[in-house]
Write a structure and sequence with these properties.
- The protein has about 190 residues and is of the alpha+beta class.
- The chain is built from 4 helices and 6 strands, in the order αββββββααα.
- It has one domain.
Length: about 190
């Protein structure tokens, strides 16, 4: 059975492929992981809605910011339990998007800081050559700067683990939705 890989979805977000959840950006995933397939599934964020489209079957699932569920452009009438599942799915997906955007920005900042550190090392070599600043001074300064950078990266790594846990929760919610909502269960790819 084809399944949307929420973990890969979160990784796309973390690397900046998704952009803003409400900016109308578009993800087209072509990755296959060990658990599920994303081939042919587009994930769009439009006007506060999350829209999944399977290009192979031409089927869509849309969850609006009012927690309405549309399958193939038809509003699905939900009971209270089903409505809560859809709401949880939307809210958790939105949280993942926001947290992944933060991680993406912080990762970019760390990358820029790493590049600056490389330039600082190069500048330090010139200081060693032309001043009383010696290689021990340079090594000490570089280690301090690298330690700060590494600490920032560790914080980022912890945040990424939180997103990964949330992505697994999201996948469990998708399974529950497939079980509890027949219109979702009838789809081979959600």
């Amino acid at each position: 059975m084809k399944r949307i890989s929420v973990v890969f979805f979160a990784l796309c977000l973390a690397t900046g492929l998704a952009g803003s959840a409400h900016a109308g950006r578009h993800i087209h995933a072509v990755h296959v992981d060990n658990h599920s397939h994303l081939n042919g599934v587009d994930i769009d964020f439009e006007d506060g809605s999350i829209i999944f489209t399977d290009s192979e079957y031409g089927e869509t699932v849309e969850i609006t910011e009012e927690y309405e569920l549309y399958v193939n452009d038809r509003l699905v009438e939900l009971d209270e339990n089903q409505q809560e599942l859809v709401k949880e799915y939307y809210v958790l997906c939105d949280e993942i998007v926001e947290e992944a955007k933060e991680i993406g920005w912080e990762g970019a900042k760390i990358g820029v800081s790493g590049a600056k550190l490389g330039l600082k090392a190069l500048g330090g070599l010139f200081k060693v050559i032309f001043t009383s600043y010696d290689s021990d001074d340079l090594e000490r300064d570089m280690e301090r700067a690298a330690d700060k950078l590494e600490a920032r990266a560790k914080v980022l790594e912890r945040k990424a683990r939180v997103i990964e846990d949330k992505a697994e929760d999201l996948e469990e919610l998708a399974d529950e939705m497939s079980t509890e909502i027949p219109e979702i269960g009838d789809l081979d790819w959600f």
